[in-house]
Amino acid sequence: MTEAQERIRNFCVIAHVDHGKTTLSDRILETTGTVNARQMRDQMLDNMDLEREKGITIKARAVRMAWTVAGEPYELNLIDTPGHVDFNYEVSRSLAACEGAVLLVDVSQGIEAQTLANAYLAVEQGLEIIPVINKVDLPNVDLDLVREDLRKALGFRDDEILLTSGKSGLGVRELLDAVVARVPAPTGARAAPLRALIFDSHYDQFRGVVAHVRVVDGEVAVGDRIRLFATDKEADLLELGTFAPDPRTRDRLLTGEVGYLATGLKTVQDCRVGDTVTLAIRRALEPLPGYRPAKPMVFAGLYPQSSDDHPALKDALEKLKLNDASLIYEPEVSQALGFGFRCGFLGLLHLEIVQERLDREYGVDIIATAPSVEYRVLTTRGAEVAIDNPAMLPDLTTIEEIREPWMKVTIIVPTQHVGAVMELAQGKRSALAEMTYLDPTRAMLRYEMPLSEVIVDFYDQLKSRSQGYASLDYELEGYRAADVVLLDVLVAGQPVDALSTIVHRERAQHTGRALVSKLRELIPRQQFDVPIQAAIGGKVVARETVKALRKNVIAKCYGGDITRKRKLLEKQKAGKKRMKMVGQVEIPQEAFLAVLRTGEAPS
Amino acid sequence: MRGISLYVHIPFCAARCPYCDFATAPATSALRARYLDALVAEIAREGALLGRPRVRTIYVGGGTPSLLEPDEVGRLARALAEAFTVRPREVTVEANPATLDRARLEAWRAFGVTRLSLGAQSFSGRGLRALGRTHQPDDVAPAVDAGRSVGLRVSLDLIFGWPGQTPAEWRADLGAAISLGVDHLSCYPLELELTREDAVANWPGGGWPTLARWRAATAATQPDDRAIAVLYAMAHRHLARAGYRHYEIANWARPGSRSLHNAVYWRSGEWLGVGAGAHSHLAGARSHQPAALPAYIERVERALGRIADAAGDPAAEEAMLRLRLDTGIDIGRSAARWGTPASARIRGALVTSARRGLIRWSGERATLTPRGRILANEVFVRLLP
Question: Can you tell me the ipTM of this complex?
Fold first, then answer.
């Protein structure tokens, strides 16, 4: 190992949303002199508006910093990790690029489910973990309680735990010293053929796809022709460098270093997170372990509000996909909603982000159907079909078995809310696998639960039943046989395919009733009675009627009222624009998500 | 100038009717004298600015204009005569049945009034109580007689759909109005505005929360839309049989007794409105004065003129207003006036509404069907661009 390589420390920060990762990262950048206070833009590392608004980091970035310990200079690479359960795989690749991780815990919140899951992931990958309790300058903090969390959950000793404040900068120097002292230098053979791990990539309109990499073996230089293992794509490197935090071009990246490669590739599909970069002329024999193509878990139909917008939606999805390898979509036709796309997402947050970006960045007004999971249907003829759209479920007589994805779900919750959380989980077809107390105030519950239950209103309910304190993490456990049926919805006698859902047989009637009653609230009165029915296999299980509109008139209209009445009508008009005509009935956008809201109390 | 119509707003009332959302103020208001000064000043200023136009119709509304003192009425008449060329075909004054005495009636006669609009609202004690009115059922007939005795045409306002009202009670109200033989009737379903109004500031202590509570409680106990639609249909049928033409969504008239002044609003004619909360439509632009008395007075005293309304779509606005009338809209004329794109949009919207049974076509003329009248907003929203 060269001396330069011995002086590299690659690390990341694992933290829950709001536990102060971004603020602490800013202090680290300041303390190392990477960015001076004047240049300091708040929340440097989160560079998408949407991320800032949602307070989460979606795309990982790495920043190179210099730090001196006992007169010796070190190169520190801080690799950012996404903070949401939907981006689990991206987190695991960021971790794989590091030798160490700072586990950051908010003193007033304690350890949260995702943080713990990520910490376990880091431990499994052999990372050196530096436990840090943050925000210690807050009043009335109970350090011992958080120390007990860290001891119980991860086996740390009290003397290993550092204390910091991102706000005041307290403990940041000690933290940087600990990174140098405790995190091992990257191993890796300088003489071996190039193997670099892509832990993030994004599309840049001038440089093409920019891959963020950790060089594991060998080295890479400007002008090299690189090759990507998983996609078999090759590209000539036009530019490479590091971020500090602005890009600084370099001639080469050496073993153990972290930086970016400007590949000139046209889409992030070709340059996927987790893939290995090698050289075209001197190929490595094996890729780095752990690559896995992005696998969507949640599916929904996206339809343009107005059919004229179909080309615009298609164009927007194509552009989004340039920068989001995990988004998949294919054309779909709904009788109710016309031409649209069935899209696959990593999870609900990912879905929400895509929807918002379509609206905000591309100005496409869409209707989204309720999210669904992917069912695997075994037919009587022995074939296995993947169904990600409930309306596509084959005829029941041809089905041997339906399987659905199950998740391992971890919930950390204050002990006083354990009962409420268990009650919620029980209604979700779950099995309690384990319950442990992290400290006298907080418990960790592990469940096995169908994903279809997790995506329908589980997170919101969990938050409301725990007064916002519960945290959640989940990962795929496998597919299991499911006793499910297709619940159809008929509006004014017409089946509306976009409202069909697959539900557990035992609860089909209950869900059907809740769904039609929610729809009755959401569908505005029309000029005629509109019956809303839920049906299973042609048998109606629930029915409600939206009573006909009998009066809608501004009866008194004289000189003084005209402007005011016009405003009132404009409001009604705006409401109508958000409606979709299905047959003779105007159905508002929210109705297509009604199945998610059947748990809410009627308003 | 071909002549305009004139609306004069007198906000003062003996008591506040809790459902009313016009600009009103207590009759005993300390601002009464200053208000009348401001009104007279505004009349003078506007008359001069417009070049002393001819005034075709006058409507003195409120509030309760009938409680002005005879000398106040005289002062108003003089101000109008100085500022405008007053040769009106119709002069209406609104009156509360209980406040119209002989002396006042004479003052209004001298003013040139031809038409009396009485806020009867109901002939039922239960109805008047439900509406928070202070006059008695027996006040109406003498007020009608008083007006007719001096040769005035008489119009009555009735409100239906108050909490607890039965179809039989509504039928009795309609019957009472018919038997008084009035020339004109306005029947409104009780509509309660639940957002705060500026005019509330004119009353001591403001009192919006109290008003809002009354309105919310009343709205909650009103007959439902279906029942109101039934009452509306009853009015249509009973008044038609008694010889009243349903010529506008909420207005009925004996032959030759339609309101000329209100027709100016519905035909997008030109009018000047003076006084607090009054609206104007002159040279294609809409404008208004503030509803709060101090704001109005200050504006006039500082000679600031009226506040311009945000421009709407004039073609759509005209179509909506004309459709209120039994004469409807001639789409050919609309095309000539507003151009092809606007009239094509309006025609398209009307065709859609016709399919829903809300519009009837006869040649190029579209009118609301009976069902279209009570669902008129369903037609109107489609007209908006």
Answer: 0.86
